[in-house]
Amino acid sequence: MNLQYIGLKEINGPLIFLNHVKGISFEEMVEIKLDDGSVRHGRVVEIKGDMVAILVFEGTHDLSLKNTTIKFLGHSMEIGLSENVLGRVFNGLAEPIDDLGHVYVDKFFDINGSALNPVARVYPRDYINTGISSIDGLTTLIRGQKLPIFSGSGMPHNDLAVQIVQQAKLSDEKKEKFAIIFAAMGVTNDVANYFKKSFEEAGVFDKVAMYLNLADDPIIERILTPRCALTAAEYLAYERDYHVLVVMTDMTSYCEALREFSSSKGEIPGRKGYPGYLYSDLASLFERAGIIRNAKGSVTQIPILSMPNDDITHPIPDLTGYITEGQIVLDRELHQRGVYPPIGVLPSLSRLMKDGIGQGYTREDHQPMMNQLFASYARVMDARSLASVIGEDELSPVDKLYMVFGRLFENHFISQGKKNRSIIDTLDLGWRLLSFLPKEELDRTDEMILDRFYNHEDALVYFNIEEDVIIKELNKEGR
Hints:
Elements: E1 4-6, E2 10-12, E3 15-18, E4 28-33, E5 39-48, E6 51-56, E7 69-76, E8 78-81, E9 89-91, E10 107-110, E11 121-122, E12 128-129, H1 133-138, E13 149-152, H2 157-167, E14 169-170, E15 177-187, H3 189-202, E16 208-214, H4 219-238, E17 242-249, H5 251-264, H6 278-286, E18 291-292, E19 298-307, H7 315-323, E20 326-330, H8 332-336, E21 343-350, H9 366-390, H10 397-414, H11 423-436, H12 447-453, H13 456-462, H14 469-476
Parallel strand pairs: 9-16, 13-19, 13-20, 15-16, 15-17, 17-19
Antiparallel strand pairs: 1-7, 2-3, 3-6, 4-5, 4-7, 5-6, 8-10, 11-18, 12-14, 20-21
């Protein structure tokens, strides 16, 4: 039997407080009936003895301390799901906002997900092709992985998110089902319309379910948006055998809402005012990615966050890095030079890619090509640092050659615009770039691989470069 309580102890912002309440549970759903008969909904967010704090979804305006009726429903928040969520647009509470009516419901699911036995998890293998060379070639996204994108204010992370949704596909041709869940938090109306229009024009909208929380929506909705999206992803993956890619942007807006919510409850703040449980809260979201034994589907996550002041040590990117398996970092200097996507290669990594690439997945030369590109580009950074001190004209012929290689790498490999490159095109382009360098400089690759893929003359023709003075000087030195 569900008990009803009449009257409130206190109203504080979006929270209402009740005394002398027993037999209820944390995150239990609540119906709130006003004087005029209208009904609002809430969620238990704090229990202290017999005092309860309830967060009201629709806000606390016009609530009466004496005549408001509270009814506890005896369950946490649930959403109804079916395969019909694909091709639909929802708000942060999983309510349809595309004027297409209600979704036919197959089952109801708790938005907090089900507890997963770590022993039941399967190690992620096989990659998801995003069509972006900097990701596919150097920080490969593996099925079941959580790989965040660290961006900054004014950086094109929204464009990158759209491009990933438009181009992402599975790596094989086994006719496996693939779907994308897109969750946007704290976005403006024009950005939300940009997302919807881009997916429709690309013809991918029928495999995408969108959960949109706008900037003027309540903060409780922002906190629930990623949970609703991940619940839909788990349903499609484990009930309907889809391989699901979840793109969530911007997690910084989510964390700001969590900070505001924590402050309204009077909790003691942690670093930079964020609640002390920020780490565990983010982990409760990110750890819902993975592959489960005996399940045909998988859940892969790309959370996108904007770093305040480009500070990678800020609590949000710092804690995210502890939970996830790598990161993709956008570089402001590349962005200012017009490189798109401006992915910083050296600070980016994918910790799971080594077991999801190579023979049987991408191509047997993927790992050595990646290692050599990283090493060669690191040498470019060293040469640029030296040039900033002594001037580029004073560099050795080898360092000058690396300076040219760096420009080619950034202009052709990293900067690809809106092109959709296959993994084979990415690998071939990587070898053309490496073939520009003298063979003796490629010391991260064995001779058999080099003999097969190294072609200096082809590289010069491809990049329209003549045998210039630098290369002639190297030849004089016997290089």
